[in-house]
Amino acid sequence: MSSASIRIRLLAFGSLKAIVPSGGDWRELRTGESVTGLLARLCSEGAIDEAVLRSAAIAVNQEYTARDRTLHDGDEVAILPPVSGGTAPTEPNPAPRVALVREPIVAAAIAREIKAGADGAVCIFDGIVRDNTRGRRTLHLDYEAYEEMALKQMHLLRAEAIEHFGVREIAIVHRLGRLTVGETSIFIAVASAHRGAAFEACRWVIDTLKKTVPIWKLEQFVDGAAWADGEPFPDDLSKDSGVIPPANSPETSR
User: What is the count of structural domains for the chain?
Assistant: First the structure.
């Protein structure tokens, strides 16, 4: 590699994972190249369609980024389609968690352990695999994630929700791998002195996670398989390095 060039590692996930080899692809670029230049090169090579890129988000070194960002030697660049939004213990975990797991989520243990004497409410969201999508019978789901970045975004969600809604603690656990009908894919528990804050924080966490945390699902139906259509990324996501906070700090019920 000459001094006039850099090497970056290119990754892609979900419905776009076929554009790079499994495990990523090292690319040589000219020094000073931006994300936009890299994407233009991929389009010119026919690796990806320009129309597909319009709905994608870009992450550099596991943080969402604007496309005019200048790349540097060793950067990790991930192309992320809209998201669909360790190992789970068999015994109760004594602390609230933010985790990605590959074994069944121990929901009752998480709900029990998050409680404290100061709490007047624990609001729970238990997302489960249903047996159909738009009339097509579901056999199972396969979840995959850009794991390092997903965990960072989940920790940011927890911190921002605690700050904005004034709740005491939040646990967020998402399962990866193959899930069958009726299994829990994501479990969120919010502990708070007041029920209003707990309800609002829980709703915001799941809604925001489904739009910003890089996790995708492949749906296996009786008549074929398809990557789930994700919700569009927030308009200004590519301008920020983290997730989108609530537009206004809510007036929660007390």
Answer: 2
